Amino acid sequence: LILYLILYWLPTLAVSKGFDPAVAPQAALAFNFASVVGALALGKIVDRVGARWPLTLSYVLLIGALIGLALVNAQMLVLALSAAAGFFLMGANYALYGVAASYYPRALRGTGSGASIAVGRVGAIIGPLVPGLLLTSGATANEIINLMAPAAAIAGVSVFLLGFFRPKAED
Question: Which of 15, 18, 38, 148 is the one with CA 20 to 30 A from 142?
């Protein structure tokens, strides 16, 4: 939900905050470039220390980046926080793809992982719709960005709790 909301609406939200339209693609570019770095960095960290703490911390920091995006009005801060959101959101997202398979029995890993990804596609549908509906109903860009924080909190708590369930060792 958060990924597709930001991916499709970050440029519009930047412009609706009063920035020059030229800032819009810069915010999207910062988000996307940092997401590549985040995916590589968090993937490596998760491989070394496990998923619970790095991914939980990633979602906590994502909440901070989202709240910061709602509060700031300086162009450089918007670009930096867009990058931070990309780093933490996409880094966690891609690391979760790698971790998800280990929670399913070997015979069901492809099906289980595919089902998990399919459920995530619901966010791909809802994510772009929510800001459009909210903007047309009079919500501000800051309000829309702030509404993403609870979704990130739910994801962070879910990842933290998932860390207490160890994948079953197989022979």
Answer: 38
Query: For residues 68 and 74, what is the distance between their CA atoms, to the nearest angstrom?
Result: 11
Distance CA 7, CA 128 (A): 8
Q: Please answer whether residues 97 and 113 qualify as being in contact, where contact means their C-beta atoms are separated by less than 8 angstroms.
A: yes
Rounded CA separation 116/131 (Å) = 24
Task: Cite the DSSP H helix spans in the chain.
Answer: 2-16, 23-49, 52-71, 75-100, 109-136, 141-162
pTM (two decimals): 0.87
φ, ψ for residue 77 (rounded to 5)? -70, -40
| CB burial of residue 168 (10 Å; 0-12, 13-18, 19+) | exposed
pLDDT < 50 positions in the chain? 171
Q: Spell out the residues 6+ positions from residue 92 whose beta carbon is closer than 8 angstroms to its own.
A: 38, 42, 55, 58, 59, 62, 155, 159
Rounded distance between C-alpha atoms, residue 104 and residue 113, angstroms: 8
